[in-house]
Specification:
The complex is a heterodimer of chains A (368) and B (405). Chain A is of the alpha+beta class and 368 residues long. Helices cover 55% and strands 14% of the residues of chain A. In chain B, β6 (198-203) and β7 (212-223) form a beta hairpin. The chains are: A alpha+beta (368), B alpha+beta (405).
Chain lengths: 368, 405
C-alpha cells in the first residue's frame, strides 16, 4: 500500500512552498489590497510561470510537463496557503476543464499559452443568484452567440479565456469563450475577498465553442472540487498556524493563553478537522489520478470536509486573537474572507454534502 | 498512490488468509459462549493455534518467543483475523501491553518465567493502572506498596480492570514513596491475581452491563523479584505500557453503527414529513458521518502506508479515537431520535434498534476510556501543535504535600 504522494510530487511542493514563503503570504496580500491600481501581482505571476507551475498539467506536445494529478493537488495546497494574489487556481481550473472536455483544436490553441504563462484562464458558473453549480444556468447559446451573465468569476478581469457553464439539454455544459471580444464584456465586481480579483462577464451574442456535454462538466466539477479542497486545506493550515503561534505568545492572567483548555482545545479541533479533510482530499487525489469510479464521492467528501475545516479555523482564528483579530490591521481577515471565496467559488458545503449522499446512494444501489 | 498490498504483503495476506480459513473454521456459526469457562477455553484454543502456527507475537523479538517480523505483518494478520470467526480479545491487553512491558523491564528470570507462557496462551494477563482517584491523572496513584524483607505488601484499589476475574497475572503500578514527587514515587510489579488478599468485583456500568472489574488489594504479598524496573521508576515503566494503549482502545467496536447503518435506518424510517432519508437534516448527518468514519479509516490507511514503506507514521492518527467515540454517540442518538418514541422502547436483541441503544451507552464510555476527549485534545494541542501544557503544581513537590491549585 502506498497512500501517500510520490517523493517527486512532494519535492515539487517543497519548491513551490519555498517560492511562496518568500514572495507571497499575508503581506503580499495586503499590498494588493492597498493598491487600487494593481489587479494582481504580476512579478509573482512571472515567478510562478518560471517555476513551471502553469505548465504542470499541460501535455509535453503542447509545451508543458505532462504531470499527473498529484502534483497540481499539492501546488493547489501551496497556492491556498500563501493567499498568493495571482490567477493560479483559476488557470489550473481552466486547464483541467480543457483537459477533461476540450477538443484537440482547443488544446492546440490554448494549452501552449497556458504553459508559457501568456494565457490566463478562468472558470465561471454563478449568475448572481442563489443557484447550484449543477442547476440549469440561464446563460444559453442563442442564434447570434452566447447570451447571459456570469458573476462572480474569479480572475475574469485579467483572464484571456474562460470556461463557462451554459444551459445544455439535461443540465449545464461548458463553453469556451475567448474574452478578447466586445460581446463578452468583463468588469470588476466587489466581493468579500479583497485579495482575489473577481469580475462579471456580460455575454451578448459572444462567440463560443462547446467543450463537452453535461457529464463532462460533472467530471470536471469533481476534479475542480479536489483541487479546491487542497487549496482550502492550504489556507486552513496557514490560519491554524497563525492561531497556534498567537496562542503560544499571547499572555493573559499571567499565562500564555495556549495553556487554557478553552483555547488549546479549539486548536486541537482545528487539527482534527484538518486531518479529516486531508484524508478525504488525498482520497480524492488518488481517485482523480486513477480515474476511479469513487471520484464523485471522494471529491464531494473532500470538498465538504475541507470547507468545514477552513470555515471553523478562519472563524476561531479571529476568536483566539480576540479584539486585535477583529481589526483591519490583523491578518485574520484574509482567512476569514478567503473562506467565503472558497465556499462561494464552487458550490457551498450544503451542495457538496448532498452530492456526497447521492453518490453514496448511487453506490449502494449499484452494489445491491 | 495505490491502496493495494505490495507483492510481499499480498503473498503474506494470501498465506495468512488460507491458514486462518483452515484453523478458524470450527468457530464459524458458534453461539456466544455460555459460561466464562467456555469463553476462556475458546480464546485459549485460538491463541494456542496461533502460537503453533507461528502467528503469535509477530513483532516480538525472537529471543522472547516472538517472530521478529515487521509491524505490517502483524497488521495484515490482525486484519484477516478480524474478518474471520476466530475468538479474539481476551489476550489483547496482556500480549499487547503487559508482556511487552515485562520483557522490556523485567529481570531475565522473570522473562523466563512469564513471557512464553503468556504467548502460548497458558496464562492470561490484565493491567492494573486506573484507580478511583487516578484516571486521566494516572500518576496520582494511591495504591500503596511497602517493603517487607524480600517482599512488598500491597494495599489499595484498582478500577476499570478489563477481565480481571479471568486473569492469572497482572501488572500493577503502586506508590512506594509518598514523600517523593508524584511521578518519582511509583513502582511497577507483577501480581498474582490468585494470591491471597486479591478480590475482583464486577463493576456495573450505567448500561447495566459489566465489562470491567474493581480489584481490591488487602495485604497482598509480591516478591521483590517480580518488580519491573527500578524502585521509584514505575512511571517510566508505565509509559512503555501506555504507548500502545491508545492504539488498542482507539478502534471502533465491531458492529458499531456507521454512516451506512444511518443511511439504512433512514431509508426505512417513515416520519410525519415522509421517508427520513429524503430530509435535508438527515442527509446532512449521513454526510457528516461518512466524513468522520471514512476520514478516520483513510487516516489509518495513511499510517499503514507509512509502516508499509518502512517509515514512522505521522501524528495524524491521534485524531482517531476522538472522532470515533463522539461520532458513535451522535450517530446513535440521531438514529434513535429518528424513531421518535419508538426508539425509546428497549429493542429486541440483535435488532438495529438494540444495536443503536447499546452503542449510545457504550459511546459514553468510549469517550472516556484510554484517554478522555479532553486529554486527547490536550495531547494534540501540546504534542502536535506545540501549545504549552496545563498549569500544574511544581513538579518537585512531594506527593503527600501536593495541594490543589
Amino acid at each position: 500500500m502506498n497512500f501517500d504522494f510520490s517523493e517527486e510530487a512532494r519535492e515539487l511542493q517543497a519548491q513551490a512552498r519555498r517560492f511562496f514563503d518568500a514572495e507571497a503570504g499575508p503581506d503580499a496580500a495586503r499590498r494588493i489590497l492597498n493598491d487600487e491600481e494593481r489587479a494582481f501581482d504580476t512579478e509573482m505571476w512571472s515567478g510562478i510561470v518560471d517555476l513551471g507551475l502553469t505548465a504542470l498539467r499541460v501535455p509535453e506536445v503542447h509545451g508543458g510537463l505532462g504531470l499527473g494529478a498529484e502534483e497540481i493537488c499539492l501546488i493547489s495546497e501551496e497556492a491556498g496557503r500563501s493567499l498568493a494574489p495571482v490567477p493560479l487556481m483559476s488557470t489550473l481550473l481552466f486547464t483541467e476543464a480543457l483537459l477533461v472536455a476540450g477538443t484537440p483544436q482547443q488544446h492546440e490553441r490554448w494549452l501552449p499559452g497556458i504553459a508559457d504563462g501568456s494565457v490566463i484562464g478562468c472558470f465561471g458558473w454563478g449568475e448572481g443568484r442563489s443557484q447550484l453549480p449543477t442547476a440549469m444556468p440561464d446563460t444559453r447559446m442563442a442564434k447570434g452567440g452566447l447570451v447571459g451573465m456570469k458573476v462572480p468569476v474569479a480572475d475574469a478581469p485579467i483572464a484571456h479565456v474562460a470556461a463557462l457553464t451554459v444551459a445544455g439539454d439535461d443540465g449545464p455544459r461548458l463553453y469556451l469563450v475567448d474574452l478578447a471580444q466586445d460581446a463578452a464584456a468583463v468588469e470588476r465586481v466587489d466581493v468579500l475577498d479583497l485579495v482575489r480579483l473577481h469580475g462579471r462577464i456580460a455575454l451578448d451574442g459572444a462567440r463560443a465553442e462547446p467543450m463537452g456535454g453535461t457529464s463532462a462538466f460533472s467530471d470536471f466539477l469533481d476534479k475542480a472540487a479536489v483541487l479546491t479542497s487542497f487549496e482550502a486545506i492550504g489556507t486552513q493550515d496557514a490560519a491554524m498556524t497563525m492561531a497556534v503561534t498567537y496562542a503560544r505568545e499571547r499572555v493573559a492572567f499571567g499565562q500564555r493563553i495556549g495553556r487554557y483548555q478553552a483555547v488549546k482545545h479549539k486548536a486541537a479541533d482545528m487539527y482534527v478537522k484538518q486531518q479529516l479533510a486531508v484524508a478525504h482530499a488525498m482520497h480524492g487525489a488518488w481517485a482523480f489520478a486513477a480515474d476511479a469510479p469513487e471520484l464523485r464521492q471522494a471529491a464531494a467528501a473532500a470538498r465538504t470536509a475541507s470547507l468545514d475545516a477552513l470555515t471553523f479555523t478562519a472563524e476561531e482564528n479571529v476568536q483566539i486573537h480576540g479584539g486585535i483579530g477583529f481589526t483591519w490591521e490583523s491578518d485574520c481577515q484574509f482567512y476569514y474572507r478567503r473562506a467565503r471565496a472558497l465556499s462561494a467559488g464552487l458550490g457551498s458545503r450544503g451542495f457538496w454534502s448532498e452530492r456526497l449522499v447521492r453518490a453514496l446512494e448511487q453506490r449502494n444501489a449499484e452494489t445491491a | 498512490m495505490d491502496f493495494n498490498d505490495n507483492r510481499e504483503e499480498a503473498a503474506l495476506r494470501a498465506r495468512v488468509r488460507a491458514w486462518i480459513a483452515e484453523n478458524a473454521a470450527e468457530y464459524e456459526g458458534l453461539p456466544p459462549a455460555k459460561t466464562p469457562e467456555e469463553y476462556v477455553a475458546r480464546q485459549r484454543g485460538w491463541q494456542k493455534k496461533k502460537y503453533g502456527g507461528g502467528y503469535a507475537g509477530i513483532t516480538w523479538p525472537k529471543k522472547f518467543g516472538g517472530q521478529g517480523r515487521a509491524p505490517m505483518e502483524a497488521i495484515i494478520f490482525s486484519q484477516e483475523e478480524s474478518r474471520s470467526a476466530a475468538p479474539t480479545g481476551l489476550y489483547d491487553i496482556g500480549l499487547g501491553m503487559c508482556i511487552p512491558t515485562v520483557f522490556t523491564h523485567g529481570s531475565p528470570d522473570v522473562i523466563q518465567r512469564f513471557v512464553r507462557r503468556a504467548l502460548e496462551g497458558d496464562e492470561i494477563w490484565c493491567q492494573l493502572f486506573s484507580e478511583p482517584s487516578a484516571g486521566s491523572d494516572l500518576a496520582g496513584i494511591r495504591a500503596k506498596a511497602v517493603r517487607d524483607g524480600t517482599d512488598w505488601i500491597v494495599n489499595g484499589q484498582k478500577v476499570w480492570t478489563t477481565n480481571a476475574h479471568l486473569c492469572d497475572y497482572g501488572i500493577i503500578i503502586t506508590r512506594t514513596d509518598a514523600g517523593a514527587p508524584k511521578h518519582k514515587g511509583l513502582t511497577m510489579f507483577i501480581v498474582d491475581m490468585h494470591a491471597e488478599g486479591v478480590e475482583c468485583r464486577p463493576l456495573k456500568q450505567m448500561s447495566g452491563a459489566s465489562d470491567f472489574n474493581e480489584v481490591f488489594f488487602d495485604d497482598v504479598r509480591i516478591p521483590d523479584a517480580w518488580r519491573l524496573g527500578a524502585e521509584g521508576e514505575g512511571w517510566q515503566v508505565a509509559l512503555t505500557t501506555l504507548m500502545n494503549e491508545r492504539l488498542a482502545v482507539g478502534g471502533k467496536p465491531r458492529n458499531s453503527p456507521d454512516w451506512s447503518m444511518l443511511m439504512r435506518v433512514a431509508a426505512i424510517t417513515e416520519t410525519a414529513r415522509g421517508p427520513a432519508v429524503h430530509q435535508a437534516d438527515v442527509r446532512e448527518r449521513i454526510a457528516q458521518a461518512y466524513i468522520n468514519d471514512r476520514g478516520v479509516a483513510l487516516t489509518q490507511q495513511r499510517a499503514l502506508s507509512a509502516l508499509s514503506q518502512g517509515k514512522t507514521p505521522g501524528p495524524e492518527q491521534s485524531i482517531a479515537k476522538l472522532v470515533v467515540a463522539r461520532q458513535m454517540q451522535e450517530i446513535s442518538r440521531f438514529a434513535l431520535d429518528l424513531s421518535e418514541s419508538a426508539g425509546f422502547l428497549t429493542g429486541e436483541d440483535g435488532s438495529d434498534l438494540a444495536r443503536l441503544q447499546d452503542s449510545y451507552f457504550w459511546a459514553a464510555g468510549l469517550r472516556i476510556a484510554g484517554g478522555t476527549d479532553e486529554i486527547l485534545r490536550n495531547i494534540i494541542a501540546e504534542r502536535v501543535l506545540g501549545l504549552p501544557g496545563d498549569l500544574r503544581p511544581p513538579k518537585d513537590t512531594p506527593f503527600n504535600e501536593v495541594q490543589p491549585l
